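Researcher: For the record, we're logging two predictions in this thread. I'll number them. Prediction 1 follows.
Model: Prediction 1, sequence and structure:
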Amino acid sequence: MKIKYLGIYIAATLSMSACSMVGDIDDIKPYYKMETDNVVYNTESAESVLRGVYKSWRTFNVSSFRPYMSILSGTTASKGGGLTGGQEFITNSIQASNVALSNVYQGSYLTINSANNLIMLMERGDAKGTPEQRVLEIIAECKIQRALAHFQLLRHFGYFFDLQSNYGIVLRDQPFQGTETAARATVQASYDFILQDLDFAIAHAPAQQEFHYYVTQMTAKAIKAKVLLHMGKYALAEQIAQEVIEDADNKGYMLEDDFSNIFIQGYESTEVLFATYTSGAMETASDQVARTTYSDYTKRMADGLLAGASDGNLATGAGYDPRFYMMFNPASAGALGNGKYPYASNGTGKHNTQMILRLGEIYFIHAEAAARNGHDSAARESFQKMASRAGYPMNYVGQLPSETLLRSIFDHKVLELFAENGEDWFDYVRYYKAKNIGLNAIKSTIKAESQLVLPFPQAALAGNALLTQNPL
């Protein structure tokens, strides 16, 4: 089969329904297959295919997984059912047969393969007449997507918290058709691969982009700070996060003064380091968030951090963390019941976006890394910046005891980011592994360390004889 535009093929593939993403090996084989003859031949065609790589983050398989991770962590609760396979996330008893696992696994590798195909075409010179700098930029943008997707897979399915572990993920640096078998890399090798892509992007990606649904050198550097934090490389994480914070304004990124404005503006927010483009009837990302609501855990946390416990009033917001109140008070929660997703699913014009990374998270990364490095003043400065934006007094962080500073950073970061991209779950795992939080401190259904890593889906095991399942 010959196709003229790989971007058209990608678009058709991305529109496949969730139920077509699961099944036996015969169903998997064509999923990744992409013909590459005559698909990129000049700058315009290369840019078209690049947009297809970006679009892969909006697929149902990837975007629909967001609500599952906050249910897993206990920061949100299921509302009226409706999330396929969601009960296993509620009880933290996820099986390899879970359809949501298969969806996000295959969707992530689709992003990787889309990026790999375009990298290959650009490196062999198919984009005739494209300036060398733009060739390198397109490759770098693809490598950021590839790094992000591999990082997502490592955090979901690998022992990302143990650099000595053999339980990493299958790494893909070349186009593949879904039939090739490959063993898991070690966790260290997985991180090395991700960091190599990010370092290339820091050197060669666009310095700035007009729109924040495209990635830049700053995006790559911010992701690197996040990766290093997960590796426990706190000195480097602090350093690079500080560099991002200091240079962000010069590159077109800045914190929003109003928390709610991040989500009203969506991908147009100045705070966004990378988010999906959404608009109109076709350019949408799944927002199954309407099937979730706050949990008792986050309600208690939001109540206890401000004033005193059990004095919150959701009708007025009194006594509640303002971020929590913005999300769930009836006046701002919107049609989906969550103020982070203010637009109706089937409306015209702007739609809810998928926040993949924003500057506010980098302040929390810097605060945590600095605290773990013993740099108390630096940690408190970044933490206070985020607390002030949320409506806390200017001396709030300064009054916190040093022995509770890390846990306070954890709590505020949960309220800042939950129901966005699963960060609340991964922070819980990291804090548990660092002995900063108990195993079942949030959910009584988490009883064993084996529950901290998702099992590989059956479809992945069926399609790759060399892939070994996580210890269950």
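Researcher: Logged. Prediction 2.
Model: Prediction 2, sequence and structure:
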Amino acid sequence: MVGGSVGVCNSGVSGWCTTLRFMQINNAAERGLELFGSVVRGVPGDQWGVATPCAGWDARDLVGHVVGVLEIGVSAIRGGSLGGSLSPVSVGDDPVGAWERTAAVFRSEVADADLDAVRETALGAQPLSFALTFPTFDLFLHSWDLGRATGQEVRIPDDVVSWIDGFLRQLPPERLRSPNTFGPEQPAPADADPTTRLMAFLGRSV
């Protein structure tokens, strides 16, 4: 493995570099894999069809989406661009098994990746460590979504909340708020914990 945090960013996104330096992407990805995996394994067998906070997706679809996003991440590590459909891939009758297989491949690829290598992203050519922030964010945010749908309380670690929040608040509004990203900010209780405040900011009803 080479690198692990962003040292430079290209023009137009340099303001995010400071935020990214405080979170090693390989460490964050491993923590996200552990969190999402624990929630997936905690889904009762009769709840794979329940609706989630992600409009139009049930619990099975949500796992299929995260599996697909990790597959895009694997492709980027192997030399491809960071892009592709965000629609859920099929996880069949075994969403837990599909998750475990894909997570194992992603974990192995990240461990051996040259994180300073440059890949094409929607924000232009960026270090792989930068490109992998997006699938890593998905692991944490969708842990909450899946937990909310299936009766599991999920708390994202506070340092990760700060990392995600600091990054996303620097996105232009047209990138942050759209049907394919996040909805309008929702109200949160005055005494809400950091995870709840983050999810409300990202359009979830809390």
